[in-house]
Backbone:
């Protein structure tokens, strides 16, 4: 029972570990190629969560720094609020490198790779108890009117101390953004988002034996909005499941949400 | 004669003052698509000695920089500055503000 709860909880934690760290006009639930300007600092706070039979929310504090105009590093410190336990989550470190950029008047196309590592530093009752890694690729087209992104991510989940190896996950996403009015510098700006997020989770293994009630496929349609005023931004969105094919008898998600405040210094 | 001299001198002073007031540089920049992302440009330019103000026309891709007289920018400096901010510098026009 405890194991089942831990494994099912892991599905949520894994998803959020991946979905955070959006910089500027990156999609809300997937990744984009945005980095920070050289010597720029981002301070962000984020509340995200999921609702199924159980609810779980995470409040995270994030810092990012632009080493160059194409390379950013950052860290995230989460605090998990579950129904029966609260506590500090696992510390994340990440690095994003924009290896290609093509600029024309009012349009920027770019591509980036992302590496993220989650260390087993959190309170045991609210974390996966493993060290995990994520490798991602993303391409983005951003214009004054329209935005579009594609991304793919692979998440490796390490073995926990109780010989439980949760299944790795693969994510593929496509996202669109639309700005209704022409943006004016120092004036409020709004971009509307719609994302299609797909996830494939492999089965977990305990002492090398596959656990049937783990892994599966999910797809979400995710509307969202991004509001900015100069160097301050608010980002919010909800993931609505449109397809869930989970192995055996796992809890299905009702929805997931995210609200983030971002400040660039 | 005396009043003519005073009038001429006053006009000369006003003219000289205004002439020497400031410079405006209009920098054409590619890749500008959102105001939030453009903040890095303002931050970097305002750190440059003699820059008084920065405004950005996102739609036209123009960064408008007002400086004190005597401030100038090299192509190399602007290429680097805009690259560090995440954009591509293209060209510049300059004029004196009277």
Residues:
């Amino acid at each position: 029972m405890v194991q089942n709860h831990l494994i099912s909880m892991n599905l949520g934690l894994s998803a959020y570990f991946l979905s955070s760290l959006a910089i500027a006009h990156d999609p809300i639930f997937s990744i984009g190629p945005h980095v920070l300007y050289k010597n720029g600092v981002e301070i962000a706070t984020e509340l995200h969560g999921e609702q199924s039979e159980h609810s779980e929310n995470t409040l995270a504090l994030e810092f990012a720094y632009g080493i160059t105009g194409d390379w950013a590093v950052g860290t995230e410190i989460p605090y998990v609020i579950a129904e029966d336990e609260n506590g500090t989550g696992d510390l994340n470190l990440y690095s994003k490198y924009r290896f290609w950029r093509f600029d024309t008047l009012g349009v920027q196309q770019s591509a980036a790779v992302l590496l993220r590592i989650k260390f087993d530093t959190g309170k045991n009752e609210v974390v996966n108890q493993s060290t995990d890694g994520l490798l991602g690729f993303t391409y983005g087209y951003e214009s004054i009117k329209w935005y579009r992104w594609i991304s793919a991510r692979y998440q490796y989940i390490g073995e926990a101390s109780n010989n439980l190896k949760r299944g790795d996950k693969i994510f593929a996403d496509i996202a669109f953004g639309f700005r209704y009015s022409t943006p004016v510098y120092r004036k409020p700006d709004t971009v509307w988002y719609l994302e299609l997020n797909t996830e494939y989770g492999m089965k977990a293994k305990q002492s090398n034996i596959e656990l049937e009630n783990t892994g599966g496929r999910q797809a979400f349609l995710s509307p969202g909005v991004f509001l900015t005023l100069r160097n301050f931004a608010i980002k919010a969105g909800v993931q609505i499941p449109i397809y869930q094919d989970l192995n055996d008898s796992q809890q299905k998600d009702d929805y997931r949400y995210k609200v983030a405040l971002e400040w660039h210094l | 004669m005396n009043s003519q001299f005073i009038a001429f001198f006053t006009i000369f002073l006003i003219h000289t003052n205004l002439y020497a007031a400031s410079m405006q540089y209009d920098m054409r920049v590619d890749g500008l698509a959102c105001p939030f992302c453009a903040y890095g440009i303002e931050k970097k330019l305002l750190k440059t000695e003699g820059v008084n103000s920065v405004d950005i026309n996102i739609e036209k891709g123009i960064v408008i920089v007002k400086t004190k007289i005597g401030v100038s920018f090299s192509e190399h400096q602007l290429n680097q500055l805009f690259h560090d901010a995440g954009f591509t510098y293209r060209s510049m026009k300059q004029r004196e503000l009277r």
